[in-house]
Protein backbone atom coordinates (compact mmCIF):
# COMPACT_ATOMS: atom_id res chain seq x y z
CA UNK A 1 0.00 0.00 0.00
CA UNK A 2 1.49 3.33 -0.89
CA UNK A 3 0.70 6.31 1.24
CA UNK A 4 -0.53 9.38 -0.51
CA UNK A 5 1.74 12.36 0.07
CA UNK A 6 0.07 14.94 2.23
CA UNK A 7 -0.33 18.36 0.82
CA UNK A 8 0.51 21.20 3.16
CA UNK A 9 -1.74 24.22 3.63
CA UNK A 10 -4.37 24.62 6.33
CA UNK A 11 -3.92 21.06 7.57
CA UNK A 12 -5.14 21.64 11.12
CA UNK A 13 -4.39 18.21 12.54
CA UNK A 14 -0.82 18.31 11.26
CA UNK A 15 -0.40 21.86 12.54
CA UNK A 16 -1.53 20.79 16.03
CA UNK A 17 0.73 17.77 15.94
CA UNK A 18 3.76 19.86 15.02
CA UNK A 19 2.93 22.37 17.77
CA UNK A 20 2.89 19.59 20.34
CA UNK A 21 6.31 18.36 19.26
CA UNK A 22 7.70 21.88 19.00
CA UNK A 23 6.25 23.09 22.31
CA UNK A 24 7.67 20.10 24.18
CA UNK A 25 11.10 20.92 22.76
CA UNK A 26 10.85 24.67 23.36
CA UNK A 27 9.59 24.51 26.95
CA UNK A 28 12.03 21.80 28.01
CA UNK A 29 14.82 23.74 26.27
CA UNK A 30 13.83 26.88 28.16
CA UNK A 31 13.77 24.97 31.45
CA UNK A 32 17.26 23.57 30.85
CA UNK A 33 18.42 27.05 29.88
CA UNK A 34 17.56 28.18 33.42
CA UNK A 35 20.51 26.08 34.56
CA UNK A 36 23.08 28.07 32.61
CA UNK A 37 25.63 29.45 35.11
CA UNK A 38 23.88 27.53 37.92
CA UNK A 39 24.99 23.95 37.10
CA UNK A 40 26.46 21.81 39.89
CA UNK A 41 29.80 21.58 38.03
CA UNK A 42 31.11 23.37 34.98
CA UNK A 43 30.85 20.18 32.88
CA UNK A 44 27.20 19.71 33.82
CA UNK A 45 26.46 23.37 33.30
CA UNK A 46 27.77 22.96 29.74
CA UNK A 47 25.90 19.68 29.30
CA UNK A 48 22.56 21.20 30.32
CA UNK A 49 23.16 24.23 28.11
CA UNK A 50 24.02 22.04 25.14
CA UNK A 51 20.91 19.92 25.61
CA UNK A 52 18.87 23.10 25.79
CA UNK A 53 20.41 24.19 22.50
CA UNK A 54 19.53 20.88 20.80
CA UNK A 55 15.92 21.20 21.96
CA UNK A 56 15.56 24.81 20.90
CA UNK A 57 17.04 23.89 17.52
CA UNK A 58 14.42 21.16 17.16
CA UNK A 59 11.68 23.59 18.19
CA UNK A 60 12.81 26.08 15.54
CA UNK A 61 12.59 23.51 12.76
CA UNK A 62 9.20 22.26 13.95
CA UNK A 63 7.74 25.78 14.29
CA UNK A 64 9.10 26.86 10.94
CA UNK A 65 7.35 23.90 9.35
CA UNK A 66 4.18 24.40 11.44
CA UNK A 67 3.98 28.00 10.26
CA UNK A 68 4.09 26.88 6.63
CA UNK A 69 1.50 24.14 7.22
CA UNK A 70 -0.83 26.63 8.87
CA UNK A 71 -0.46 28.95 5.88
CA UNK A 72 -1.11 32.21 7.73
CA UNK A 73 2.39 33.57 7.35
CA UNK A 74 3.48 32.98 10.93
CA UNK A 75 7.23 32.56 11.42
CA UNK A 76 8.98 30.32 13.95
CA UNK A 77 9.46 33.40 16.15
CA UNK A 78 5.77 34.38 15.95
CA UNK A 79 4.82 30.91 17.10
CA UNK A 80 7.35 30.83 19.95
CA UNK A 81 6.92 34.37 21.23
CA UNK A 82 3.40 35.49 20.41
CA UNK A 83 1.19 32.80 21.86
CA UNK A 84 -0.18 32.64 25.39
CA UNK A 85 -0.53 29.76 27.87
CA UNK A 86 -3.75 28.31 26.47
CA UNK A 87 -2.23 28.07 22.97
CA UNK A 88 0.70 25.94 24.12
CA UNK A 89 0.48 22.20 23.47
CA UNK A 90 3.39 20.80 25.50
CA UNK A 91 2.90 17.99 27.99
CA UNK A 92 2.85 18.93 31.68
CA UNK A 93 6.08 17.00 32.39
CA UNK A 94 8.34 19.43 30.52
CA UNK A 95 7.02 22.53 32.28
CA UNK A 96 7.62 21.16 35.78
CA UNK A 97 10.26 23.03 37.79
CA UNK A 98 13.93 22.09 37.57
CA UNK A 99 14.11 21.43 41.32
CA UNK A 100 17.61 20.23 42.15
CA UNK A 101 19.92 18.55 39.66
CA UNK A 102 18.48 15.16 40.62
CA UNK A 103 14.98 16.21 39.63
CA UNK A 104 16.19 17.78 36.37
CA UNK A 105 18.05 14.61 35.46
CA UNK A 106 14.96 12.48 36.13
CA UNK A 107 12.84 14.73 33.93
CA UNK A 108 15.44 14.61 31.14
CA UNK A 109 15.71 10.85 31.41
CA UNK A 110 11.94 10.23 31.35
CA UNK A 111 11.40 12.64 28.47
CA UNK A 112 14.58 11.78 26.55
CA UNK A 113 13.82 8.06 26.59
CA UNK A 114 10.33 8.78 25.25
CA UNK A 115 11.52 11.30 22.65
CA UNK A 116 14.29 9.11 21.25
CA UNK A 117 11.78 6.28 20.69
CA UNK A 118 9.25 8.72 19.24
CA UNK A 119 11.68 10.30 16.78
CA UNK A 120 13.02 6.89 15.81
CA UNK A 121 9.49 6.06 14.65
CA UNK A 122 8.84 9.48 13.11
CA UNK A 123 12.03 9.08 11.03
CA UNK A 124 9.86 6.86 8.84
CA UNK A 125 6.96 9.32 8.64
CA UNK A 126 5.18 9.62 5.28
CA UNK A 127 5.67 13.37 5.71
CA UNK A 128 9.19 13.91 4.36
CA UNK A 129 9.78 17.15 6.18
CA UNK A 130 8.80 15.72 9.57
CA UNK A 131 10.88 12.61 8.83
CA UNK A 132 13.91 14.83 8.16
CA UNK A 133 13.51 16.70 11.45
CA UNK A 134 13.03 13.40 13.29
CA UNK A 135 16.19 11.90 11.76
CA UNK A 136 18.20 14.74 13.27
CA UNK A 137 16.37 14.83 16.59
CA UNK A 138 16.62 11.10 17.26
CA UNK A 139 20.42 11.24 17.54
CA UNK A 140 20.27 14.18 19.92
CA UNK A 141 17.53 12.76 22.14
CA UNK A 142 19.22 9.35 22.36
CA UNK A 143 22.34 11.16 23.57
CA UNK A 144 20.32 13.09 26.19
CA UNK A 145 18.67 9.88 27.40
CA UNK A 146 22.05 8.20 27.77
CA UNK A 147 23.62 11.15 29.59
CA UNK A 148 20.73 11.60 31.99
CA UNK A 149 20.29 7.82 32.45
CA UNK A 150 23.91 7.51 33.55
CA UNK A 151 23.38 10.31 36.04
CA UNK A 152 20.23 8.68 37.40
CA UNK A 153 22.29 5.58 38.17
CA UNK A 154 25.26 7.54 39.54
CA UNK A 155 23.08 9.58 41.87
CA UNK A 156 20.56 6.88 42.77
CA UNK A 157 23.27 4.33 43.55
CA UNK A 158 25.42 7.02 45.18
CA UNK A 159 25.31 8.47 48.64
CA UNK A 160 22.34 8.52 50.97
CA UNK A 161 21.91 12.21 50.16
CA UNK A 162 22.01 11.82 46.37
CA UNK A 163 19.77 8.75 46.50
CA UNK A 164 17.17 10.58 48.55
CA UNK A 165 17.17 13.59 46.26
CA UNK A 166 16.85 11.71 43.00
CA UNK A 167 14.13 9.50 44.52
CA UNK A 168 12.25 12.65 45.56
CA UNK A 169 12.56 13.96 42.00
CA UNK A 170 11.19 10.69 40.65
CA UNK A 171 8.31 10.70 43.14
CA UNK A 172 7.38 14.22 42.12
CA UNK A 173 7.64 13.76 38.34
CA UNK A 174 6.41 10.21 37.86
CA UNK A 175 2.66 11.03 37.68
CA UNK A 176 3.35 13.57 34.91
CA UNK A 177 5.12 11.02 32.71
CA UNK A 178 1.92 9.14 31.89
CA UNK A 179 0.50 11.94 29.77
CA UNK A 180 3.21 11.23 27.19
CA UNK A 181 1.38 8.03 26.25
CA UNK A 182 -2.25 9.18 26.24
CA UNK A 183 -3.49 9.30 22.66
CA UNK A 184 -6.26 11.63 21.55
CA UNK A 185 -8.02 12.21 18.21
CA UNK A 186 -5.15 14.23 16.78
CA UNK A 187 -2.65 11.47 17.57
CA UNK A 188 -4.93 8.83 16.10
CA UNK A 189 -5.59 10.87 12.95
CA UNK A 190 -1.87 11.43 12.44
CA UNK A 191 -1.16 7.73 13.02
CA UNK A 192 -3.83 6.69 10.51
CA UNK A 193 -2.35 8.99 7.89
CA UNK A 194 1.12 7.54 8.50
CA UNK A 195 2.47 10.96 9.47
CA UNK A 196 2.62 10.45 13.21
CA UNK A 197 2.24 7.60 15.63
CA UNK A 198 -0.08 6.56 18.42
CA UNK A 199 2.00 7.36 21.53
CA UNK A 200 0.42 4.54 23.54
CA UNK A 201 2.41 2.17 21.29
CA UNK A 202 5.63 3.47 22.86
CA UNK A 203 4.73 2.82 26.47
CA UNK A 204 5.81 -0.81 26.92
CA UNK A 205 9.30 -0.27 25.51
CA UNK A 206 9.68 2.97 27.43
CA UNK A 207 8.65 1.33 30.68
CA UNK A 208 11.12 -1.48 30.11
CA UNK A 209 14.05 0.93 29.65
CA UNK A 210 12.97 3.16 32.52
CA UNK A 211 12.38 0.26 34.91
CA UNK A 212 15.82 -1.15 34.06
CA UNK A 213 17.60 2.10 34.83
CA UNK A 214 15.55 2.80 37.94
CA UNK A 215 16.46 -0.69 39.17
CA UNK A 216 20.19 -0.21 38.53
CA UNK A 217 19.92 3.10 40.34
CA UNK A 218 18.41 1.29 43.36
CA UNK A 219 15.42 3.62 43.16
CA UNK A 220 11.77 2.68 43.61
CA UNK A 221 9.04 3.41 41.10
CA UNK A 222 6.30 5.32 42.90
CA UNK A 223 2.83 3.87 43.00
CA UNK A 224 0.19 6.37 42.17
CA UNK A 225 -3.18 6.49 40.49
CA UNK A 226 -3.00 10.22 39.96
CA UNK A 227 -2.45 10.89 36.25
CA UNK A 228 -2.57 14.59 35.50
CA UNK A 229 -2.98 15.43 31.82
CA UNK A 230 -4.34 18.13 29.52
CA UNK A 231 -1.15 19.87 28.46
CA UNK A 232 -1.52 18.67 24.87
CA UNK A 233 -4.97 20.27 24.81
CA UNK A 234 -3.75 23.55 26.31
CA UNK A 235 -4.64 23.01 29.98
CA UNK A 236 -1.45 23.70 31.88
CA UNK A 237 -0.09 23.88 35.40
CA UNK A 238 0.64 27.33 36.79
CA UNK A 239 4.31 26.85 35.88
CA UNK A 240 3.87 27.61 32.20
CA UNK A 241 2.84 31.23 32.71
CA UNK A 242 6.05 31.94 34.61
CA UNK A 243 8.14 30.23 31.94
CA UNK A 244 6.50 32.30 29.20
CA UNK A 245 6.95 35.54 31.11
CA UNK A 246 10.71 34.91 30.95
CA UNK A 247 10.79 33.45 27.47
CA UNK A 248 8.60 36.09 25.86
CA UNK A 249 9.64 39.16 27.83
CA UNK A 250 11.62 40.86 25.05
CA UNK A 251 8.87 40.48 22.45
CA UNK A 252 6.22 41.66 24.89
CA UNK A 253 8.24 44.70 25.99
CA UNK A 254 9.69 45.58 22.57
CA UNK A 255 7.37 44.11 19.91
CA UNK A 256 9.20 43.28 16.70
CA UNK A 257 12.66 43.74 18.26
CA UNK A 258 15.44 42.00 16.34
CA UNK A 259 19.16 41.44 16.98
CA UNK B 1 34.36 34.73 -16.75
CA UNK B 2 32.51 32.29 -14.52
CA UNK B 3 29.65 32.26 -17.04
CA UNK B 4 31.75 31.10 -19.98
CA UNK B 5 32.86 27.75 -18.57
CA UNK B 6 30.80 24.55 -18.80
CA UNK B 7 28.67 23.69 -15.80
CA UNK B 8 30.86 20.91 -14.40
CA UNK B 9 33.93 23.14 -14.43
CA UNK B 10 32.04 25.92 -12.72
CA UNK B 11 30.75 23.48 -10.09
CA UNK B 12 34.27 22.25 -9.43
CA UNK B 13 35.38 25.86 -8.98
CA UNK B 14 32.63 26.38 -6.41
CA UNK B 15 33.72 23.28 -4.47
CA UNK B 16 37.27 24.67 -4.38
CA UNK B 17 36.01 28.02 -3.11
CA UNK B 18 33.97 26.35 -0.40
CA UNK B 19 37.25 24.99 1.00
CA UNK B 20 37.87 28.58 2.11
CA UNK B 21 34.72 28.71 4.23
CA UNK B 22 35.66 27.53 7.70
CA UNK B 23 33.55 26.33 10.59
CA UNK B 24 33.62 29.38 12.89
CA UNK B 25 33.87 27.13 15.96
CA UNK B 26 36.58 24.83 14.55
CA UNK B 27 38.51 27.14 12.22
CA UNK B 28 40.83 24.44 10.84
CA UNK B 29 37.90 22.67 9.19
CA UNK B 30 36.24 23.84 6.00
CA UNK B 31 32.57 23.22 5.39
CA UNK B 32 33.66 20.68 2.75
CA UNK B 33 35.91 18.81 5.24
CA UNK B 34 32.99 18.70 7.66
CA UNK B 35 30.73 17.15 5.05
CA UNK B 36 27.92 19.63 5.51
CA UNK B 37 27.90 20.73 1.85
CA UNK B 38 25.56 18.28 0.20
CA UNK B 39 25.26 19.68 -3.30
CA UNK B 40 26.39 22.39 -5.69
CA UNK B 41 24.12 22.91 -8.68
CA UNK B 42 23.75 25.51 -11.40
CA UNK B 43 20.17 26.14 -12.40
CA UNK B 44 20.86 28.12 -15.55
CA UNK B 45 22.93 31.03 -14.25
CA UNK B 46 21.71 30.70 -10.67
CA UNK B 47 23.91 28.78 -8.30
CA UNK B 48 22.36 26.75 -5.51
CA UNK B 49 24.44 25.34 -2.66
CA UNK B 50 22.76 22.82 -0.38
CA UNK B 51 24.00 22.42 3.19
CA UNK B 52 22.86 20.37 6.18
CA UNK B 53 23.27 21.22 9.87
CA UNK B 54 25.48 19.16 12.17
CA UNK B 55 23.18 19.63 15.18
CA UNK B 56 19.63 21.05 15.25
CA UNK B 57 20.66 23.96 17.42
CA UNK B 58 24.14 24.58 16.00
CA UNK B 59 24.57 28.36 16.32
CA UNK B 60 27.25 28.40 13.61
CA UNK B 61 24.82 27.52 10.81
CA UNK B 62 23.58 31.05 10.11
CA UNK B 63 27.13 32.33 9.98
CA UNK B 64 28.24 29.52 7.69
CA UNK B 65 25.33 30.26 5.36
CA UNK B 66 26.23 33.96 5.24
CA UNK B 67 29.93 33.20 4.65
CA UNK B 68 29.17 30.87 1.75
CA UNK B 69 26.99 33.49 0.09
CA UNK B 70 29.64 36.15 0.65
CA UNK B 71 32.54 34.14 -0.79
CA UNK B 72 30.53 33.18 -3.88
CA UNK B 73 29.40 36.74 -4.49
CA UNK B 74 32.95 38.05 -4.11
CA UNK B 75 34.18 35.52 -6.68
CA UNK B 76 31.60 36.54 -9.26
CA UNK B 77 28.93 33.88 -8.82
CA UNK B 78 26.20 36.43 -8.15
CA UNK B 79 23.47 35.95 -5.57
CA UNK B 80 23.86 32.25 -4.85
CA UNK B 81 21.03 30.49 -3.07
CA UNK B 82 22.07 28.62 0.06
CA UNK B 83 19.49 25.99 0.88
CA UNK B 84 19.33 23.90 4.07
CA UNK B 85 18.14 20.30 3.99
CA UNK B 86 17.74 18.00 6.99
CA UNK B 87 17.47 14.60 5.38
CA UNK B 88 19.52 12.47 5.26
CA UNK B 89 20.78 13.61 8.65
CA UNK B 90 24.43 14.58 8.91
CA UNK B 91 26.77 12.01 10.37
CA UNK B 92 30.44 12.33 11.35
CA UNK B 93 31.10 9.64 8.71
CA UNK B 94 30.82 12.45 6.15
CA UNK B 95 33.90 14.19 7.52
CA UNK B 96 36.72 13.62 5.01
CA UNK B 97 40.20 12.23 5.73
CA UNK B 98 41.82 15.63 5.39
CA UNK B 99 39.37 16.99 7.97
CA UNK B 100 40.23 14.20 10.39
CA UNK B 101 43.97 14.88 10.03
CA UNK B 102 43.49 18.61 10.52
CA UNK B 103 41.36 18.08 13.62
CA UNK B 104 43.98 15.84 15.22
CA UNK B 105 46.77 18.32 14.43
CA UNK B 106 44.61 21.05 16.00
CA UNK B 107 44.39 19.03 19.24
CA UNK B 108 40.85 17.67 18.81
CA UNK B 109 40.42 13.89 18.66
CA UNK B 110 38.55 13.15 15.41
CA UNK B 111 35.38 11.04 15.39
CA UNK B 112 35.88 7.32 14.88
CA UNK B 113 35.04 6.19 11.38
CA UNK B 114 32.07 4.04 12.16
CA UNK B 115 28.45 4.37 11.31
CA UNK B 116 26.31 6.53 13.53
CA UNK B 117 26.80 6.03 17.23
CA UNK B 118 23.63 4.32 18.31
CA UNK B 119 25.09 2.33 21.15
CA UNK B 120 22.56 1.52 23.81
CA UNK B 121 22.41 3.02 27.25
CA UNK B 122 25.63 2.12 29.13
CA UNK B 123 27.00 0.37 26.05
CA UNK B 124 30.69 -0.02 25.32
CA UNK B 125 32.43 3.22 24.47
CA UNK B 126 34.96 2.85 21.63
CA UNK B 127 38.44 4.01 22.69
CA UNK B 128 39.37 7.57 21.77
CA UNK B 129 43.07 8.18 21.12
CA UNK B 130 44.72 11.24 22.64
CA UNK B 131 45.46 13.72 19.82
CA UNK B 132 48.79 14.64 21.45
CA UNK B 133 50.44 11.34 22.42
CA UNK B 134 48.10 8.88 20.63
CA UNK B 135 47.60 6.88 23.83
CA UNK B 136 44.27 5.09 24.09
CA UNK B 137 44.45 5.29 27.87
CA UNK B 138 41.89 8.09 27.91
CA UNK B 139 38.81 8.84 29.92
CA UNK B 140 35.67 10.79 29.14
CA UNK B 141 35.21 13.70 31.53
CA UNK B 142 31.93 14.98 30.12
CA UNK B 143 29.62 13.96 27.27
CA UNK B 144 29.21 17.61 26.39
CA UNK B 145 32.08 19.94 25.58
CA UNK B 146 32.69 23.48 24.46
CA UNK B 147 30.31 23.12 21.49
CA UNK B 148 27.41 20.80 20.69
CA UNK B 149 29.64 18.62 18.52
CA UNK B 150 32.35 17.91 21.11
CA UNK B 151 32.86 15.90 24.31
CA UNK B 152 35.58 16.43 26.94
CA UNK B 153 38.30 13.83 27.52
CA UNK B 154 41.46 13.45 29.57
CA UNK B 155 44.57 11.46 28.65
CA UNK B 156 45.81 9.03 31.31
CA UNK B 157 49.40 9.04 29.96
CA UNK B 158 50.29 12.61 29.01
CA UNK B 159 47.57 13.91 31.36
CA UNK B 160 46.37 16.54 28.89
CA UNK B 161 42.67 17.31 28.71
CA UNK B 162 41.31 17.38 25.15
CA UNK B 163 38.17 17.73 23.07
CA UNK B 164 36.75 14.80 21.12
CA UNK B 165 34.58 15.44 18.07
CA UNK B 166 31.56 13.30 18.97
CA UNK B 167 30.64 10.46 16.72
CA UNK B 168 27.01 10.71 15.60
How is this fold's topology laid out?
The complex is a heterodimer of chains A (259) and B (168).
Chain A: H1 12-33, H2 42-70, H3 76-81, H4 92-95, H5 101-122, H6 128-156, H7 160-177, H8 185-192, H9 203-216, H10 239-247, H11 249-253
Chain B: H1 7-18, E1 22-23, E2 26-30, H2 31-34, E3 37-43, E4 46-51, H3 61-74, E5 81-84, H4 97-106, E6 108-109, E7 138-142, E8 150-155, E9 161-165
Parallel strand pairs in B: 4-5, 6-9
Antiparallel strand pairs in B: 1-2, 3-4, 7-8, 8-9
Characterization of this structure:
The complex is a heterodimer of chains A (259) and B (168). With 259 residues, chain A is an all-alpha fold. Chain A has eleven helices and no strands. Chain A has helices at 12-33, 42-70, 76-81, 92-95, 101-122, 128-156, 160-177, 185-192, 203-216, 239-247, 249-253. In chain A, helix 5 (101-122) packs across helix 7. Chain A is globular. The model of chain A is unreliable at 1-8 (pLDDT under 50). Chain B is an alpha/beta fold and 168 residues long. Chain B is built from four helices and nine strands. Chain B has a four-stranded mixed beta sheet with strand order 6-9-8-7. In chain B, strands 3-4-5 form a three-stranded mixed beta sheet. In chain B, strands 1-2 form a two-stranded antiparallel ribbon. The model of chain B has no long low-confidence stretch (mean pLDDT 86). At the A-B interface, helix 2 and helix 6 of A face loops of B.
Amino acid sequence: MTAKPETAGGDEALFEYLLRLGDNALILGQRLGEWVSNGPTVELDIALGNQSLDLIGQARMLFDYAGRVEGKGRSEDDIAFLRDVLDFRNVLLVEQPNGDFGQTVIRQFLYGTYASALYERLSGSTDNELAGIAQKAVKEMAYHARHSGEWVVRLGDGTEESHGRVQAGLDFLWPYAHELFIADDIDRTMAERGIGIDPSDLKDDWLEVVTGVIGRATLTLPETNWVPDGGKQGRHTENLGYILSDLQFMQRAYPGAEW
Amino acid sequence: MAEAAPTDIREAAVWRLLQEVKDPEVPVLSVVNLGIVRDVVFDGETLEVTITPTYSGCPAMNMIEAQIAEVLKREGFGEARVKTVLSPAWTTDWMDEEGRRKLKAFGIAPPEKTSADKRALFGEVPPVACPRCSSENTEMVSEFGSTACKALYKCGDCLEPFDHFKCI
